[in-house]
Amino acid sequence: LLRIFAAQDLRGLKILVTAGPTREAIDPVRYLSNRSSGKMGFALARTAMRRGAAVTLVTGPVALPAPPGVEVIRVQSAHEMAEAVFARAPQSRVLVKAAAVADFTVAAPAEHKIKKSGEELSLPLSATVDILRELGARKEPRQLLVGFAAESQAHYQEGERKLREKNLDLIVVNDVLDGQSGFAVDTNQVTLIGKNGRQEMPLLSKEDTADRIWDAVRALLDAQDA
Ligand code: CTP
Ligand code: CA
Which residue ranges does the record annotate as region Phosphopantothenate--cysteine ligase (predicted)? Predict the structure, then answer.
């Protein structure tokens, strides 16, 4: 019931959210990907929309329906995600990068299905563009940039490093080894790290985690206007 009467505290804001994994083609029938389900990014899009924002969701391939009222752009590869995001970034006040973007893509995808032969196969990979880092480098004065960090060790140090190196306003750190957080589950236990310190969240549904992230974004927007 509370959700129906959600505060319209993001009204009028253009928000871009990314979600899901990417797929990097190996040949016409195979790809490299990861375990991201898209649930966190979709929860972020849905909750922001409820709170009054105009939301665009750029998502990799996931088995989730489009949240009503959200503009959904479906992409496959890291390169396609980068193009879709860069085209829309200048018009967005807040950008939240929940997608699990491939760090490497197949250097030369095969035009035809690769046949089995021999005992080994090597697949040369090349680095993808770090979308978030690029957005940080191009950030406009009043834009807010929120990143995610999936870590299995040294969580806070890694989160703080990514916050600084990618010029972010906020980073959401989660533990990919903890079975109740991160990939493909409905709950999450995250830590929010900003320039002025960190906030550990309890174990929550992804929907409630999303609302806590928007609370933190709202506070940063208020601080800009103060
Ligand atoms: N990210 C991105 N583009 C990439 C890789 C990552 O935009 N090519 C973004 C993710 O969407 C996420 C953040 O960067 O918001 C952190 O992703 P993560 O994998 O934790 O960090 P990396 O910087 O890729 O470093 P590493 O994988 O080595 O920990
Ligand atoms: Ca990565």
Answer: 15-226
